[in-house]
Design goal:
Blueprint: E1 13-18, E2 24-28, H1 29-32, H2 36-45, E3 61-66, H3 70-81, H4 112-122, H5 126-138, H6 144-153, H7 157-165, H8 177-180, H9 186-208, H10 224-239, H11 248-253, H12 255-258, H13 263-280
Parallel strand pairs: 1-3
Antiparallel strand pairs: 1-2
Amino acid sequence: MSDQISSGSSDTYFHVRSLPDGTEFHVSRHDLEACEAFKDMFACCDQGFELVSDKGESSQEAVLDLDETEHALATLFRLIQHPPEPPAMENSEGTRPWFKSDAGSVIPFPVLPFMLHLVDKYGLSETIIRSLHLHVQCNAAMNPLPVYAYAIAHDLPKIAAEASAHLLHPPLSSYTKEDIRIIPTVTAYHELLRLHEYRKSRLREILLNEDLFPHGYGTCPTHRQSATQLWERKRAYLATQIEAATDIAEEMHDLAGQLSSCSLCRKAVTAAVEMLQYKCQKVARTVDYVPQDYWLGAVQ
């Protein structure tokens, strides 16, 4: 490459050769200039000189040796020549995009870190970076822990937050040491703990403060005592079982079947469950929405 200088012609092509494998790729200067690294190289070399081949002969094609594997170069040029489209989304606005459940349009997570490494190394466009980041975020539902760990390691807080929403179940205690070890910092693990404990605390508080007949409203004169006892026994037990992903409204809705013979009691259960659901929807589901003044073990 020492004697090779581009002529600046729009139809200039290079044989880009993988040093480890010896494989050559026929690539145009136009494609190479999609990389900031090569664009800078051409800018330094554009002085009107002829291209020379690796045999020292004048040529419109020259050899560019790169210390990359065949797989790496194939991936790089595929990203340049066929930039990945963002995954299909239900909405494109808001802090949390909702992706369509079309697995065929999503790049699998295991290949994304290597793609993003090449994008960063060779300086590909911001458009490609944004698209790949959306693919990472789309993988959060399927691979939440690896996505969370990757996002933390690469300072991608929005993606980390999205992944944390999919780490509410199972409980963190169910993961092995090997699983948890991929989280790169203690702080990032602590943020997940805070999210889980905050949700459990708030869900328990909401549950224990929701009465079947609040302030006597909608009371069934016939079954008031028995219905209230059923409700209180159920919520007292459930309060001891709450985890970060527990749907307490759904759990309490089971009582509707036991009280189905009375329209007043059934109506009261439905109203109380709907209120539980409404209040629970407001509880933080991601690490970035846990109040900064909340600490583990704090009395709420």
